Amino acid sequence: MLMDNAIYSTYFLSIATTNQIAKGLASKDYSKLRSFSSQVLGLAAILGAMVTLSIFTLGQPLLHFTAGSSDSPTLIRWALQYCQIRGVVTPLAIVNMVAQSLCLATLDTRTPAYAVVAASIVNIIGDFALVPSLGMVGAALATAAATATSSVVLLRRVSSIRSEWESLSTSSGNAPCISQVIDGVPTIVPQRNNSTTTKTKVSDSSPKPSPLFSIPSSSSLWEMLLLGGPIFGCIVGKIICYSGMTMRAAKFGVTSMASHNILLRLFFFLTVLGDSVGNATQIFLPGVWFQQQRQRRKNEDSSSFQPVRDLLRRIGIVGMCAGVFSKVTMGQLVEKYGSVGGVTPSITALLNTAQSWGGWALFIYPFLMMMEQSLVATHDLMYLIKSYLITMVIHFGCLRWITNSFADVWRTIFLFQVIRAVQFSIRMLQKIIFESNSDSKQRGGVSATI
Fold first, then answer.
1. How deeply is 153 buried, as exposed, middle or buried, from its count of CB atoms within 10 A (0-12, 13-18, 19+)?
2. Exposure pattern of 206-245 as b/e (b: 16+ CB <10 Å)?
């Protein structure tokens, strides 16, 4: 849990990468893309080194705090060894997240899939070979080896993508497939430039060499912080809220805590579908949104909002299907397999009382992530921060005053999703409907005056 939270706290860098790469592809600024990708990978490595240092210096007291009433010298010793081994490859793990986001932003879904398959194979072989003799240390070594394997696959592809960007920034040759949105439909479009004059002119000026990893300049770091800082605050808010639910579940006894851990792992396993919907929003929306903003500045027709609506409607349909599948899957897994693997009847009974709330939370989650990532994609970050502050106040109020059983904890998880979804959807409606109507009225007034 300590390692997972430490790595997840840097996920803001992955989101910022997707946003900036998608925006750069929309403007075809390949030189800036090469520079940004190098600097964000360097920043990921630096953050990873900081997390590693924190694990080696503060790991033991943090584990004592995390273990709570289950604290014991043996548990802490084994857990610390596990965290330190994984901490060694934490810089690679964070670099992997950034590299994967870069691949997805360029619509390369195969390379991340290959990386997952390769890492899984190494992890499984490592577990079978090392766990029988080394136990938890063997499991940590297998996970570390899998992380390194994934890095090799992802970074090779990132290096190839950056080479393609270099050739595009020096000549007008055919571009590889670039993600765009045409009439609200995500589309892969080959970019071409047949201008001989442009080709000669651009080829005369070679871009500066850009290594795979570099330290961000002060201006680039500030730009990343302006985007990544608020996202980091939101991620910390999520961690605090979910941790508060875990602490509240522990108040109802060991059985409730065990049931909560089982259901929470299943919940996060199924939220992968909703996260994918959010990633799709983050990949496709920035290009069409900033294109629409340019049209507004040029005082063109406000119907450019229509592609935004069409895109969100299509992603929303996919999200609804993902939500239904996640809800049904959680119910079926708890009902049919909740009593296997040594799970006691008392734990099974508690799982059954709470799974419906967890299922409804999963149903809403894809829509929630679409709306949240829409705000990130449109750089509406201050609203995002304010909404999380409001949500946290309501959330901990619910945990304190209306959570009286284990099932109530999961009702609070459901409310946590609903409160965020309502706030984010209202904001997006204001952005794509009311602003469009305002533009139409202003242009109508101008036309009448003329």
1. buried
2. eeeebeebbebeeebeebbeebbebbbbbbebbeebbebb
d(CA 375, CA 313): 15
**Contact (Cβ atoms closer than 8 angstroms) between residue 50 and residue 9:** no
Hey, CA dihedral for 94, 98, 99, 101, is it positive or negative? Answer: positive
pLDDT at 182 over 50: no
Task: Flag the least confident range among 37-41, 50-54, 94-98, 206-210.
Answer: 206-210
Q: How far apart are CA 161 and CA 180, in angstroms?
A: 17
pLDDT digits (tens, 9 = 90+) for 425-442: 999 988 877 665 555 454
Query: Which phi and psi angles does 124 have, rounded to 5°?
Result: -65, -45
Helix runs in 298-344, H state only: 305-337
Q: What is the amino acid identity at position 438?
A: S
Give, to the nearest 10 degrees, the angle between helix 90-105 and helix 11-27: 30
What is the DSSP secondary structure assignment for residue 431, as one 8-state letter? Answer: I
Give the Å distances, CA to CA, from 30 to 69, 154, 233, 308, 401: 54, 20, 30, 24, 54
Structure tokens at 322: 């993902």
The two three-digit tokens of residue 430, written as one number: 């204001």
Helices 254-297, 345-377: axis angle to 10 degrees equals 10
Q: Measure the CA–CA gap between 11 and 15, rounded to whole angstroms.
A: 7
